[in-house]
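Continued from yesterday's entry.
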Amino acid sequence: MTGRLRVISVHALLLAFTASALFPIFLVITNSFKNRRAIFRDPYSLPSSETWDLIGYQTVLQGANFGLYFRNSLTVTLISLTLILLSSAMAAFALSEYRFRGNALLGLFMAVGIMIPIRLGTVSIIKLMVALGLNDTLWALILVYTASGIPLAVFILSVFLRNVPGELKDAARIDGASEYRIFWMILPLVRPALGTVAVFNMIPIWNDLWFPLVLASSEKSKTVILGAQVFLGQYVNDWNAVLAALTLSMVPVIILYIIFSRQLVSGLMRGAHR
């Protein structure tokens, strides 16, 4: 009975935490479909036939270049995730598979990269991007996000790669497979780790405001979060537009999160049935 009560308590706590986390999102989405008077009169009610209004979305889509902002954010997020996963997987494979002088020191260097925020080097990053001619471009954001995501990704992937049976790699070497072939062969075996790395890096990249503000603030390279912030400043009293902009900003990252989460769960289930 005590064990069952503990399980019920844990599930109740998790449900309460989930509800508290999702409730603000629920309020933003529901109020974005209501008229201004209904937002202030009864913000906790669902939209009805009397309060339903899409004026906020019309204002956002007509008054701001949100299509470009979404495309920029999606481009930066997807390319950054691809580079993080590929480069980190290769580095983790080398650290976990080969023993060489400086192996432990290199692993410690990666750990330091996790502990030190990359924003501390903002001034130096700006100077570097200007020297490379990448200032005010999407590539500046991609390189920064890739560099900031690699240390944690290498740490996670190294742990998973060390648990891959050595017999599989030895058998592949006996068959004449190259090290690159072995790397691509075992990569599907650490799919749960790849999904974890993708989820951990995707949301901070999409939601980041600091580096788009200092590295890519022109209209052609704005991300959706920066575009939404500018829009909020312009329409500070238009709460319909404010809530609509926030809702539109959430949609892509929720979709990406669902995609990568499903891949993560799928990989975990396949690993459990082996």
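--- second protein ---
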Amino acid sequence: RWVADPNTVTITVQDARSHNLRITVYGKPNEFEGIFEGLISELEITDDMAGYSRFILKNENQLPFAVKIIQHSYNLKKKRGRL
């Protein structure tokens, strides 16, 4: 598991069974709605621990969507003065 510094994103390699990446980002799922057309459905962003959301990166075609979500997560944390 890799944790960014500052803690706005974590990436967990799920190689044993799923062969994908589980990504946790700062911000609740509703904070990503309406910002990027189709992101919520493409990545299935769901609740995680308090104040965070998660999604599964299943293939390389989802990478551009994941990058946008991670950037928005960073901006949310920065805007709230939590960096």
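The first strand starts at residue 2 and ends at 3. The mean pLDDT is 87. Will compare against the first tomorrow.
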